[in-house]
Q: What sequence folds into this?
């Protein structure tokens, strides 16, 4: 996935998190969710990129803990106006690093020529945001490949509405999530739909990528809409298969609870 001719870079941090480096015009970049500063600083410097902004999807430490160290590493000594901007949800301002720009659903940000749209997708946390830049969807812990985040601060109707908002984005979007959870999510998806040949093929493809240590992200939103069980809760056939005909929220709640307890 390239923005302005430059690739989005996934920096693995901790056990299974990703911080995403998003190329902007010139040699500028934004970083989504710097859980740990050191590997992100290295990745930016290796590529000769300068940090323009930090986008925070939500307040969990594995997504924000490196923010200040990262920003300080790319700030001029005089603390002047070219300091990178920290951007996050107004509603969670008190649980986030000090924000230079607090945003909410529908906000539009501009980094030079590059436009970023902000979507509020509560459920995993109450102030969870997703960022859409060009064809890239940075979904944090709201939506994973073949899975979704746990509902720590929201109920099933809230989280389901958030996922529907993401599913309404165009099919050619690419999904960049906050964690490498694809293999475990596919095991659960196959447990729900053991005869689904598409899932079987995905499992083989993903296993091969992981065997090489390669990321399974981004995935295509089109594929997620078709095969991610948490996005299929409005599909009448899937509802019947899973025993919740006509009730997407009840099905979503049942799947989320089942996944929480799935070994
Ligand atoms: Zn989280």
A:
């Amino acid at each position: 996935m390239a923005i302005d001719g430059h690739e989005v870079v996934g920096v693995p941090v901790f056990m299974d998190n990703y911080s995403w480096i998003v190329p902007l015009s010139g040699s500028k970049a934004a970083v989504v969710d710097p859980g740990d500063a050191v590997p992100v600083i290295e990745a930016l410097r290796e590529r000769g990129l300068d940090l323009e902004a930090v986008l925070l999807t939500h307040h969990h430490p594995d997504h924000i803990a490196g923010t200040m160290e990262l920003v300080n590493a790319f700030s001029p000594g005089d603390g002047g106006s070219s300091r990178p901007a920290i951007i996050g949800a107004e509603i969670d301002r008190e649980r986030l690093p000090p924000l230079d720009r607090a945003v909410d659903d529908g906000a539009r940000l501009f980094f030079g020529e590059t436009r970023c749209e902000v979507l509020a997708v509560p459920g995993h946390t109450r102030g969870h945001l997703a960022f859409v830049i060009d064809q890239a969807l940075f979904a944090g812990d709201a939506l994973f490949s073949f899975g979704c985040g746990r509902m720590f601060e929201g109920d099933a109707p809230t989280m389901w509405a958030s996922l529907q908002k993401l599913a309404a984005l165009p099919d050619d979007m690419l999904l960049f999530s906050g964690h490498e959870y694809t293999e475990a999510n596919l095991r659960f998806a196959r447990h729900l739909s053991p005869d689904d040949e598409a899932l079987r093929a995905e499992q083989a493809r993903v296993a091969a990528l992981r065997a090489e240590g390669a990321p399974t992200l981004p995935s295509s939103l089109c594929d997620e809409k078709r095969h991610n069980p948490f996005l299929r809760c409005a599909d009448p056939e899937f509802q019947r298969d899973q025993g919740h005909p006509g009730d997407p929220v009840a099905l979503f709640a049942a799947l989320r609870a089942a996944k929480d307890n799935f070994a």
